[in-house]
Amino acid sequence: MQINRGYKFLLRPTSVQMAAMEQHASICRLIYNLAVEQRRDHYRQFQRAMGRPISFATQCLELTKLRAEFEWLSAVSLTAQQQALRDVQSAYQNFFSGRSEYPSFRKKGINESFRFQGREVSFRRLNKSWGIVKLPKIGDVRFRWTRDIPGKLKNVTIILDPLGWHVSFSTEQDVEVLSNFRPALGVDRGIVEPIAYSDGTFADFPIARIKALDKRARKAAQVASRGKKGSNRRKVAKARVAANRAKLARVRTHFNHVETARLARMFGVICLEALKIRNMTASARGTIDAPGTNVAQKRGLNRSIMEIGWYQFEQFLTYKIVAAGGEIRHVNAAYTSTTCSCCGLNEKTNRKSQAVYECAGCGSAMSADTNAAINILRAGTRPAQDRRVAAKRKSTLEVEATAA
Ligand SMILES: [Zn+2]
Known about the structure:
- Helix content is 48%, strand content 20%.
- It is α+β, with helices and mostly antiparallel strands.
- The strands form three sheets. A seven-stranded antiparallel beta sheet has the order 2-6-7-1-5-4-3. Strands 9-8-10-11 form a four-stranded mixed beta sheet. Strands 12-13 form a two-stranded antiparallel sheet.
- Helix 1 (15-50) packs across helix 4, helix 5 (207-226) runs antiparallel to helix 6 and helix 6 crosses helix 8 (295-323).
- It is elongated.
- The protein binds zinc ion.
- The site of zinc ion has 8 residues, from loops.
C-alpha cells in the first residue's frame, strides 16, 4: 500500500535567504490572488457567453508571458508560482464539487507558504542535529534535523508560522500491511484523565506543560487587549500569544504522534466512543450530584485544547493503525460511564464523582475512566452475532409484552 506523509522541520535561514523566502511568499500570494480574481471576472464577463471556464493551462501560459515582461516576477521560482496556480485550480475544484467555500484571497501574514516540486529540491544530513535543503532561487538552507525522511520526495512546502520558517517534505512511501494478531484495547477520553485505557493504564498526556503554555498565551492576550492600538507593546504581546499557541499545538501534536504510534504497534483493534466532541464540554460542569470544580477554567481549556487534541488523536490513530493492518471500532457512548464493568449493573449513582466508580451491586471500585474504557472495549469486541441475538430477543420480548 502507498501512503503520503509529511515531515516538518524548523529552518535556520540566513537574513538573505529569509528575504528571498519573504519575496517568494508575497509573490506567490499575489499570483494566487490575481488568478482567483481573473477566474471570478472571467466568469462574470465571458463564461456565460462562452460556456468555458478559464483553465490552469491558460493561466500558466499567461504567467510565462508575464515573467518575460517583469524581472521581479522571474526573480522568483517558476514552479513555486505554478504551484500557486495549481492551488487555485484545486480550490475551484473543491468549490465546484461542494467540498469547500468559494476561494478567498490569501492575506498577508496568514498561512504564508509556497511550494516546490520534489524533483527540484534535494536535501542531506549535515550532522546529528542539522540538515541542509537546496531550494531553487533561495539556496542551501539549514534546518533542524529531528528525524529521518523516508520515501520518494513528492513536494516541498515552505511555511511561515509564529515560530518561524519551516520546511515540510511530503513523501510517497510503500507500507507493508501487517497481519493482525495483536490484542484489542478500549479507550476512554475523559476530563479527569484525558485518555484512559481498558488495561488500567493512562496516557502520559503533557497536561501541566499544556496548561502552562495556555496560561502564558492568555496572559499575553490580556496585555495585548490593554495596550493601545498600533502600539509596540501590543504588537509584541500579540506575537507572544501566537508563539505560545503555536508551541502548545506543537507539544500536543508531538504527544499525539508518539502515543498513537505506540498504540498502533501494540494493539490490533482499538475501540473508541463515537462521541460528538461538542458534548464533552458539558461534563466539566459535572452533574448535580457531582458538580465539577474550577468549571470556568476547565471549560476554557476543554474547548480550546482538549477538543482539538482528541480530534487529532483519533485522526493519527486511524491512519497509523490502518497502516499497521489493524482497525478502529466506534462504539455507542451511551451508558459506558454509568455501567459497572464487573457485573454489568447500570446505576447513575455508582459514579461517585468525576474520578471514582463504586458499584453498589458487586462492590468493585476503580477509576471511573478505566471503568468506561473497559465497557467500551467490551462493546466494541462483542461478536456481531451476539449483538443481533440481543436485538432479536429484545424485539420478541416487546412483541410478547404487547400481546399480553
Ligand atoms: Zn458491579
